[in-house]
Write a structure and sequence with these properties.
Layout: H1 5-20, E1 24-25, E2 31-32, H2 41-57, H3 65-88, E3 92-94, H4 104-111, E4 124-126, E5 139-140, H5 159-176, H6 184-190, H7 211-221, E6 224-225, E7 247-249, E8 251-256, H8 261-271, E9 274-278, E10 286-291, E11 302-313, E12 322-328, E13 340-344, E14 357-362
Parallel strand pairs: 4-8, 10-13
Antiparallel strand pairs: 1-2, 3-10, 5-11, 6-7, 8-14, 9-11, 9-14, 11-12, 12-13
Bound molecules: 2-acetamido-2-deoxy-beta-D-glucopyranose (3 copies).
One 2-acetamido-2-deoxy-beta-D-glucopyranose (NAG) is lined by residues 121-122, 193, 196, 216.
Length: 368
C-alpha cells in the first residue's frame, strides 16, 4: 500500500512532536496535548492489561510465546498509532480494534482486497446527471429496508465482493421490494473477470478484485445466487458451484457516477446503495464518530457500500457537528459503529471516496 508523502511526513512529525515536547501545535492551529511519553511502569502495566482485554474480547490465541510476544509489540505500536490518529482525526474516536495486533502492511494484505483500476469493463455505462436541488439533508437506506445485516469477510481480501453484493441487494430490493442476501462466495469462486488491458487486475477471490468487474461477471453469467444457497466460506477460489436455476438477483446494467458529492447523493437516493472505494488507513483504528482526518491518501485499497448521509454527526472532541456519509463495511458488527463507518461529507474526495462510485440496476424478477 502506498501512502501519500504528506500523510507519511505528518505522521512522522506527529510522532516526533509527542515524544519531544508537551503541548505543541499540530500545524493546523490546534494544540496537541502530549499523550505519549517514554512509557513508565504504570503505562506498561496498563498496556499489559489492555492487551489481555483485547485478547479476551476478540478471542485471540497465538500459537506460541514467540508469536504472542511479537503480537504484543505490534499491539503497543498500534496503541501509539491510534493516539496519533486521534490527534489528526479529532471528530472520530480511535483506539483498540480487532485489528490492533496486525501491522498496517498485514492489515492491508489480509483484510482489504481492492485491486487497482486500469480500464472499465465493456458494459460499464455512465450514470445520467441527476437534478440535485431537492436533495434531503439526511437519508439512510437502512431505514427503508434496503440493506442486509453487516457481514464479515474474515481473513480474505474479498471486500470487493461484499461491496458488489451490497449494491445489488439494494437494487434488487428497489426492483422487487424483497431484501435478499446475495452470495459473495459465488463471486470469489466463479468471477475471474479481467481488465482487457491489464491481466494483473483480474478478480482473484481472496487476493482482490473490483466491483465493476463483479457487476460485469454477474451481467454475463445471469445473476447471483442467495447467500444461503451459496454460503460464504472465506476460502480462496474453490470450485465454482454456481447453479443457473438458483439465480436470485440479476443485473440489468451498471454505471459509474461522476466524482461530485451532489451527484453521488442524488444517485444514492434514486438508485439505492452505491459501491464505492476508499483508502482504509484510518479504518484500522476507527471506533466511532465522523472520521475527517486532516490528511488522507486518495489511493483506494478497500471496497465498501455507501448507504446514506447525514447533516450533523456526533463529533466527540469537536464543538461543531459534521455532515457525513454512512458506509457499510464488511468486518463484522463488532468493528466501528455496529459495523458502519462515518466519513465527513463536504471535503471533496476525502480518502478517495468520490472517485470510484458505481450504481447498479437490478432486473425485476418474480421471487420463487
Ligand atoms: C471486452 O471486449 C473486448 C473486445 O471485444 C474483449 O476482447 C474483452 O474480453 C472484453 N472484456 C470483457 C471484460 O468482457
Ligand atoms: C441446480 O439446482 C437445481 C434446483 O435446485 C437442482 O435440481 C439441480 O440438480 C442443480 N444442478 C446442479 C448441477 O447441482
Ligand atoms: C438500467 O436498468 C434499469 C432497470 O431495468 C432501467 O430502468 C434503466 O433505464 C437502465 N439504465 C440504463 C442507463 O440503461
Amino acid at each position: 500500500m502506498m501512502m501519500d508523502l504528506a500523510v507519511f511526513s505528518l505522521l512522522i512529525a506527529s510522532a516526533l512532536f509527542v515524544t519531544i515536547s508537551g503541548v505543541v501545535d499540530d500545524g493546523f492551529g490546534n494544540p496537541i496535548k502530549q499523550v505519549v511519553r517514554e512509557e513508565n511502569d504504570e503505562q506498561l502495566l496498563n498496556l499489559d492489561h489492555q492487551f489481555t482485554q483485547f485478547k479476551s474480547k476478540y478471542e485471540k490465541t497465538y500459537k506460541n510465546q514467540v508469536e504472542h510476544d511479537h503480537r504484543f509489540r505490534v499491539f503497543k505500536a498500534n496503541v501509539r498509532r491510534a493516539r496519533r490518529h486521534q490527534q489528526l482525526d479529532p471528530s472520530a474516536v480511535h483506539g483498540v480494534t480487532q485489528f490492533s495486533d496486525v501491522t498496517p502492511k498485514e492489515f492491508s494484505r489480509k483484510y482489504l482486497g481492492l485491486k487497482r483500476r486500469f480500464s472499465l469493463p465493456n458494459d460499464t455505462q455512465k450514470a445520467a446527471i441527476l437534478p440535485t436541488s431537492e436533495l434531503p439533508t439526511d437519508f439512510d437506506w437502512r431505514e427503508k429496508g434496503a440493506v442486509t445485516p453487516v457481514k464479515n469477510q474474515g481473513l480474505c481480501g474479498s471486500c470487493w465482493s461484499f461491496s458488489a453484493t451490497g449494491a445489488l441487494e439494494g437494487a434488487h430490493f428497489l426492483a422487487t421490494k424483497e431484501l435478499v442476501s446475495l452470495s459473495e462466495q459465488q463471486l470469489i469462486d466463479c468471477d475471474h473477470t479481467c481488465d482487457p488491458q491489464e491481466a494483473n487486475s483480474c478478480d482473484t477471490g481472496c487476493r482482490g478484485g473490483l466491483m465493476n468487474n463483479a457487476f460485469e461477471y454477474t451481467l454475463k453469467t445471469g445473476g447471483l445466487m442467495k447467500e444461503q444457497d451459496y454460503p460464504y466460506t472465506g476460502r480462496d477460489r474453490s470450485v465454482c458451484k454456481f447453479n443457473k436455476t438458483m439465480i436470485a438477483a440479476k443485473v440489468s446494467n451498471f454505471s459509474v457516477v461522476s466524482a461530485d458529492e451532489d451527484q453521488i447523493a442524488a444517485n444514492l437516493v434514486q438508485n439505492g446503495p452505491l459501491a464505492i472505494a476508499i483508502n482504509a488507513l484510518w479504518m484500522q483504528t476507527y471506533i466511532a464518530g465522523v472520521s475527517c482526518p486532516y490528511v488522507c491518501s486518495k489511493n483506494q485499497d478497500h471496497g465498501v457500500l455507501l448507504v446514506g448521509f447525514g447533516s450533523a454527526g456526533y463529533a466527540p472532541l469537536r464543538l461543531e457537528e459534521k455532515p457525513y456519509w454512512i458506509i457499510k463495511n464488511s468486518w463484522g458488527s463488532m468493528w466501528g459503529e455496529k459495523g458502519y463507518y462515518k466519513i465527513c461529507r463536504g471535503t471533496p474526495n476525502i480518502c478517495g471516496v468520490d472517485t470510484m462510485v458505481s450504481t447498479v440496476a437490478a432486473v425485476h424478477t418474480t421471487p420463487q
